């Protein structure tokens, strides 16, 4: 009797490119500067300490912008894929928007944090947060310390790394969508997955810093490439 083939394990990584056609700016494209600042200079613990108002304003503006955008065909296709995928499935996003969840994705890790969440600088409690942080009261949990954006700054450890690395080590297929491959550790995921024996596919508008590591790269807008790959 032939042995049954086990269901394939899939890990998908997404970046800012998947939300670009929903109207959210990417970081390193032509519209990637915010009031003259690069993300590498705003998104650091040092910047928060030196100019707290600037950093809070940056994230307050982006949190408000979430109310004006909606998931696109690429987010929707990934949610459909998860619903019918027969094996282990994990969607890891570097994005701090909530468009994957609003499209229906559930096996989802926000490795760089979330705009609609606040982190206490004292007790490190996280709580859902939809308003501005610039004028937020002290942390409701400990009543003492200040709240900051629940965002992984440069030099800080991305969230859920052990779970992500375990999924990559067991993956049969790794797919990267709309990310430049400029920021680690996410930029190294393709090499971890390939070393574990996974097939690797990149879907991006243009060739990225990591393209050479993928077995296959398909170029085009995510709203076309992702539904075409999923169906
Ligand atoms: C489309 C499209 C369409 C457009 N359709 N596609 C030297 C060497 C190596 C590493 C380091 C180094 N010095 C420091 C480091 C580490 C550092 C790092 O990587 N720095 C680099 C700048 C070199 N990393 C860190 O500090 C991280 N922590 C860390 O490493 O901890 C230690 C550790 C050790 C061991 C294991 C684990 C950890 C933390 C990184 C935090 C990143 N934070 C940010 C901001 C927070 C979130 C936010 O404000 O939104 O995360 S930076 C920013 O870049 C954001 C993104 O998630 C991230 C990646 O950007 P992404 O998504 O790729 O966007 P873009 O704009 O770069 O690219 C968009 C792509 O889409 C492009 O390719 C377009 O072509 C494409 N596209 N339209 C399809 N319609």
From TrEMBL:
<keyword id="KW-0520">NAD</keyword>
<keyword id="KW-0963">Cytoplasm</keyword>
<feature type="binding site">
    <location>
        <position position="120"/>
    </location>
    <ligand>
        <name>Zn(2+)</name>
    </ligand>
</feature>
<dbReference type="InterPro" id="IPR003000">
    <property type="entry name" value="Sirtuin"/>
</dbReference>
<feature type="domain" description="Deacetylase sirtuin-type">
    <location>
        <begin position="1"/>
        <end position="231"/>
    </location>
</feature>
<feature type="binding site">
    <location>
        <position position="59"/>
    </location>
    <ligand>
        <name>substrate</name>
    </ligand>
</feature>
<feature type="binding site">
    <location>
        <position position="123"/>
    </location>
    <ligand>
        <name>Zn(2+)</name>
    </ligand>
</feature>
<keyword id="KW-0808">Transferase</keyword>
<keyword id="KW-0862">Zinc</keyword>
<feature type="binding site">
    <location>
        <position position="62"/>
    </location>
    <ligand>
        <name>substrate</name>
    </ligand>
</feature>
<protein>
    <recommendedName>
        <fullName>NAD-dependent protein deacylase</fullName>
        <ecNumber>2.3.1.286</ecNumber>
    </recommendedName>
</protein>
<comment type="function">
    <text>NAD-dependent lysine deacetylase and desuccinylase that specifically removes acetyl and succinyl groups on target proteins. Modulates the activities of several proteins which are inactive in their acylated form.</text>
</comment>
<feature type="binding site">
    <location>
        <position position="142"/>
    </location>
    <ligand>
        <name>Zn(2+)</name>
    </ligand>
</feature>
<comment type="similarity">
    <text>Belongs to the sirtuin family. Class III subfamily.</text>
</comment>
<feature type="binding site">
    <location>
        <position position="222"/>
    </location>
    <ligand>
        <name>NAD(+)</name>
    </ligand>
</feature>
<dbReference type="InterPro" id="IPR027546">
    <property type="entry name" value="Sirtuin_class_III"/>
</dbReference>
<feature type="binding site">
    <location>
        <begin position="178"/>
        <end position="180"/>
    </location>
    <ligand>
        <name>NAD(+)</name>
    </ligand>
</feature>
<feature type="binding site">
    <location>
        <begin position="94"/>
        <end position="97"/>
    </location>
    <ligand>
        <name>NAD(+)</name>
    </ligand>
</feature>
<dbReference type="Pfam" id="PF02146">
    <property type="entry name" value="SIR2"/>
</dbReference>
<keyword id="KW-0479">Metal-binding</keyword>
<dbReference type="InterPro" id="IPR029035">
    <property type="entry name" value="DHS-like_NAD/FAD-binding_dom"/>
</dbReference>
<dbReference type="InterPro" id="IPR026591">
    <property type="entry name" value="Sirtuin_cat_small_dom_sf"/>
</dbReference>
<dbReference type="InterPro" id="IPR026590">
    <property type="entry name" value="Ssirtuin_cat_dom"/>
</dbReference>
<dbReference type="InterPro" id="IPR050134">
    <property type="entry name" value="NAD-dep_sirtuin_deacylases"/>
</dbReference>
<feature type="binding site">
    <location>
        <begin position="204"/>
        <end position="206"/>
    </location>
    <ligand>
        <name>NAD(+)</name>
    </ligand>
</feature>
<feature type="binding site">
    <location>
        <begin position="15"/>
        <end position="34"/>
    </location>
    <ligand>
        <name>NAD(+)</name>
    </ligand>
</feature>
<feature type="active site" description="Proton acceptor">
    <location>
        <position position="112"/>
    </location>
</feature>
<feature type="binding site">
    <location>
        <position position="139"/>
    </location>
    <ligand>
        <name>Zn(2+)</name>
    </ligand>
</feature>
């Amino acid at each position: 009797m032939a042995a049954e083939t086990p269901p394939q394990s899939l890990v998908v990584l997404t970046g800012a490119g998947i939300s670009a056609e929903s109207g959210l700016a990417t970081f390193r494209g032509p519209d990637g500067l915010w009031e003259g600042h690069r993300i590498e200079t705003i998104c650091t613990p040092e910047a928060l300490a030196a100019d707290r108002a600037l950093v809070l304003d940056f994230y307050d503006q982006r949190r408000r912008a979430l109310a004006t955008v909606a998931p696109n065909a690429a987010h929707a296709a990934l949610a459909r894929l998860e619903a019918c995928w027969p094996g282990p499935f994990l969607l890891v996003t570097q994005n701090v928007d909530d468009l994957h969840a609003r499209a229906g994705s559930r096996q989802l890790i926000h490795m760089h944090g979330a705009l609609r969440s606040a982190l206490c600088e004292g007790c490190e409690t996280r709580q859902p947060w939809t308003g501005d942080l610039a004028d937020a009261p002290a942390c409701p949990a400990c009543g003492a310390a200040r709240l900051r954006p629940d965002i992984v700054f440069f030099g800080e450890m991305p969230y859920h790394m052990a779970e992500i690395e375990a999924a990559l080590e067991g993956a049969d297929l790794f797919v990267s969508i709309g990310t430049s491959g400029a920021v680690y550790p996410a930029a190294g995921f393709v090499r971890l997955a390939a070393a574990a024996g996974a097939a690797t596919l990149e879907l991006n508008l243009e060739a990225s810093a990591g393209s050479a590591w993928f077995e296959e790269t398909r170029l085009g807008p995510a709203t076309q490439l992702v539904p075409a790959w999923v169906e």
